[in-house]
Amino acid sequence: xESTPSASSGSPFxxxxxxxxxxxxxxxxxxxxxxxxxxxxxxxxxRVPAGSTPGSAEQILGAVNLDRDLKITRSNLExxxxxxxxxxxxxxxxxxxxxxxxxxVTRRLRQVLETGEPHVARVQRLRRADGSELVVSMSILPxxxxxxxxxxxxxxxxxxxxxxxxxxxxxxxxxxxxxxQSLAESLLAWGDVAAIDLDLAVWxxxxxxxxxxxxxxxxxxxxxxxxVWPDGYVTPGDDLPSDASRLLxxxxxxxxxxxxxxxxxxxxxxxxxxxxxxxxxxxxxxRAASVAYIPLVLDGAxxxxxxxxxxxxxxxxxxxxxxxxxxxxxxARTSHHxxxxxxxxxxxxxxxxxxxxxxxxSSGDTIETASIYQPTTPDSAGVGGDWVNSFPLPDGRTAxxxxxxxxxxxxxxxxMGQLSMEARALLSAGLGPDEVxxxxxxxxxxxDDAESGLAAGYSALxxxxxxxxxxxxxxxxxxxxxxxxxxxxxxxxxxGGPVAARPHPGLGAEFALREPFDVHTFAAPPGSLLALxxxxxxxxxxxxxxEGIGRLSDxxxxxxxxxxxxxAARRVVSALAPARHRDDMTLLLARMIGYRKExxxxxxxxxxxxxxxxxxxxVSGLLGQWRVRDDTRVSVxxxxxELVANAVRFAxxxxxxxxxxxxxxLLCEVGDTGNGRPRLGRDGLLGDxxxxxxxxxxxxTRWGVRWTDTGKVVWASVGR
Length: 720
Known about the structure:
Blueprint: H1 12-18, H2 28-32, H3 36-39, E1 45-47, E2 61-66, E3 72-76, E4 86-88, H4 102-115, E5 119-127, E6 133-142, E7 150-156, H5 159-169, H6 176-187, E8 193-199, H7 200-204, E9 218-224, H8 242-252, E10 261-263, H9 266-273, H10 276-282, E11 288-298, E12 304-314, H11 321-358, E13 367-374, E14 384-392, E15 398-408, H12 409-428, H13 433-447, E16 464-471, E17 476-482, E18 488-490, E19 497-498, E20 520-523, E21 529-533, H14 545-557, H15 565-576, E22 585-592, E23 600-605, H16 611-625, H17 630-650, E24 655-661, E25 665-672, H18 691-699, E26 702-707, E27 712-719
Antiparallel strand pairs: 1-4, 2-3, 2-7, 5-6, 6-7, 8-9, 8-12, 10-11, 11-12, 13-22, 14-15, 15-16, 16-17, 17-20, 18-19, 18-21, 21-22, 23-24, 24-25, 25-27, 26-27
């Protein structure tokens, strides 16, 4: 074996060996690198006699160096606490492990080799020559250049040190499955098999309340070590049999107080379970001879039982009182981490449900849409405020909206839902995209006003939103954006790219930064594809944002005109999304269809007294060509006549009449240059003001007003 270099070399092996110097016997590093003469065992063999003097109890740190084949090249396990652990230079490191741990540890070792990311503080067992085992905290580090391979540090776990290390390690993830797994791995220091069974309400993130008489339903959340288990044994994700859940819940909640119980031998286990089926479901193999059940209790008045931790041992190793106290202390210290994971799971589920509810449900006659929402990975801080929506407007147009609310969790979700519904209501009321953004900007500012009592510690300042409105007659899209990334437009006859719209600050910007929102109008002929998205889809630490948008443009441009949009959206997201992303990803694809030319007609008339008669004449001729039923024809002519007469009376300038044949009926539009809002008069048909609108109101299924740059358009829908 090569001699151990000085600590100045800076390799992880030497740093681990040199750290905590008082924990390692003097000269141990040199002896670890010594020749066969110093070992007295033959070449390549390092053995610490099992009967060596224990020495200082503080000597707990050791290190092993591995090559890329995971074979041992150097070792420093001379601290007396490692007595009986045999290290053969050139042998696989996994020879030191129990057989059932070999697959998991091998996978961890190779993962660190491939990624270079350390794996820290894994609770692990090492085999001794006499058949006993030593519990250690194992960390896997990549070797520093010029060396290749790995350095594995091993800290023999004194019980108090283990309690501290376990409490520190548990709770680093907000995923309830990973939290339960960390707790189970920590419990292995006291047994051979550990399992965590959680109340189903905890697993699903529901509200947990104390009901002393209630029988809890248990689901297995974690089980270690990772091995092949007997047929019928309950493994992670499985529900315990109902009689097993009842038995365990009654056992740990005697007299309505949560208590730990111990079954000291195999006879007691079989006597208590009293069923061969329960033994197969709950006992991990024939060698399991004793078990300790420790309830996971959430402090309160009264306390709440979240589940049960199980620690199993082989025969000949009964639990003593001090060990049971240690187990109870560890579980008590970490139960609140399980509850935090439950709360996160609940919040995650609620926000995700809201996200799904906001996704578009169906496409219209003039546009086809498909959307994808992919939340962040489970170990993230929570679901964010990304949202998309598409919905038909009452006047026949279609709105496509995408937004990204700052932050994660319920605060962001509440703001997201409020902005989404407000945008839909204002667009349906006829406001333009720029006017809607002005209202959303005011809403975000109000929500951030602490005096209003609405903020509740959450700020949505800087949230972004992009609103597009598609006109299926003119085949144009009106766009306004508040700090959002530009949509991707793919025309039917050329490659796609981002829409060139002037950028604007996000919602709630400071007063000095506020500018009027622009409306950018561009053509989207039938067959065009529009992609709206949030930044999580295009942001990549290795790329600039422009490169990310370029990748998205290429992916959307590759969508064939005949491809189903649902499948195309999934392909686009999978092509761009990293395996583990730290932000939500949202994509909305819209394929423009529009109305056929033969289904629309537009006339421009001067604002004269005979305008209503001229409008009736041209519309009547078109209705004859469309073979409209007589009763519908009469209704349409009356509606057009009243709307044109109203425009002549209250507005100036030319009048535009447009008729659209839709799948549900006929849509009549009359535009003028006036800015007054038509309203139904209180006097009804008997009054002199607003009588025409009462006629329109009675003959149509719906009518309304939308505002334009030059005036307004009054529209009315007449069913066939």
